[in-house]
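User: Structure with fe (ii) ion, tokens only please.
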Amino acid sequence: MDKFPILSRFQYDCHVKVVETDVGETITQLAMNCASHSIGIHVKDQPGKVLRVRKTSDTDDQPPLRGDITVGEAGLIMYDCVDVYFSDPES
Amino acid sequence: MALLERNEWYDIARDTNWTPTYVSQENLFPPTMSDPYQIPIDEWETFDEPYKVSFREYVRTQREKDGSAYSVKAALSRSRFYDQACEGWASVLKLHYGTVALTEYQACQFQARMVRFGPSPSMRNMATFGMLDEMRHAQLQLFFPHELVHRDRQYDWAHEAAHTNNWAVIGGRHAMDDIMMCRDAVTGSLMVSFAFETGLTNLQMIGLSTDAANMGDFTFSNLITSIQSDEARHAQLGTPTIEIMVRNGYKEDAQKILDIAFWRVWRLFSVSVGIPMDYYIPLEQRHMSFKEFMHEWVNRQYVRQVEDLGLAKPWYWQHFLDDIENHHHCQQGGIWSWRPTVWWNPPGAVGPKERQWLEKKYPGWNDSYGTYWDVITENLLADREEKTHPECVPIICNMCQIPISNRPGKAWKARPYQFEHEGRRYNFCTEPCRWIFTTDPNRYKDHETIVDRMYSGEIQPPDLDGVLKYMGIGVVSEGGRDGYNYQWIEGFRSAAAE
Ligand SMILES: [Fe+2]
Ligand SMILES: [Fe+2]
Ligand SMILES: [Zn+2]
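Assistant:
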């Protein structure tokens, strides 16, 4: 698998971080991958919440990506930026 | 033989100019090196610098200044000041010398460009003194830290930093190459003498020498005062140049030039001055916050000066005001977190008392930057030091070369400002950094940030060790660790125990 860098804009974090992913990684895995560089490092965990991923936009209103699709299927390429954010499990 | 008074010969000597006959004016002063605006020569001959000095006077004054700086250094070199100085202050010195010493040589080269290619004879005359000034600044700031190298190898970065690819150095080099090394004499004099020296550094030095005196570092305080007195003179090269440009219909160009340079220098300045003032200098010795300093010394004066010249404050003034309360807090976090990548030992220094001070000076600090340090503090209290070292890198701005960061916590402001150009995607920290790129993409498009270099194959192996070595860490000296060995968390431990 060819790894490539995408940008993780993790909710409440101070820095936009470079996270290595590959086209076969699922969005759920990508969320965990990004979380490992933010939660417990620069961002406090929020037990009971789940993480969702959406493409970063100027207006912060992109719909969340489905967790079971892959990074490749979501069309993410090098230096694309994603928001990773806490959400209620049922919402 | 009696000497003439300066005012009896100065104007005629200064304004002596050639009318070339063997080569054309254009060959003697190529527009790309001299004046791309092609303002007529009689306009340039009206250039009148406010501060006048003869060579004889210059040499006498400089000799006195040098004599005083070196004798204070010699007198205090037997004192135990540097043995006892806290690592916070040592960080200020290491950061300063590493970023400034050889930049002064670049400034010397830039002044030399004005000496040779300045379109006005008085500009060339005045820049000659500026060139000699900058040579002196480089020499002083290479010599002074040299005696500290045997105590601490990190002081060697004064000599070495400019020759490395450390990320912070790349940031400085990118900006200085842009505003000083790769500009014609006229544009450069606006960027360097006005935006950089008048706008920011001249005043920064006043603050820095006060801080040094408060710390009891009279050697450094004296050194900075000595340099500042030169700066105050040669920084005046910008004003007459702007007047001539505005009068000749180049007001919009002048405005754009200043706006580019002011933002470029500001992004570096807030890291190299804001972090020391609000974090590295121990609480007891802080004389004012960085924000207070900026408002009192820089903002009001800069705005007054540009308005006096018929120009306006930069279009991004609101972004700038916000950045004053934000950028350096983010970078204190980033530099501390990625401390092995720098050549000084940045203290975290956000214990309970410091946080109180920060909250008072920057209302809302705890709810934002505080949430970042809460996680770090918890890790340190629970003996999870390894969790304070991120295993990834932050994305770096393709203009200022600084990690893309912004207010953490509820505000969650960090975001990249992207731009596509000729099939390449660029990431910027803010709108002004992106705007600068769009003013002249050809100028900037081929540069790669340290992160770009990890993925373009330039850095091998492209892992943390590879990057550190590429940046000179472990080569020039060891990288940074917490300057106070995490002592600053003890206040939280005792609070928890109560
Ligand atoms: Fe200088
Ligand atoms: Fe200077
Ligand atoms: Zn930037």
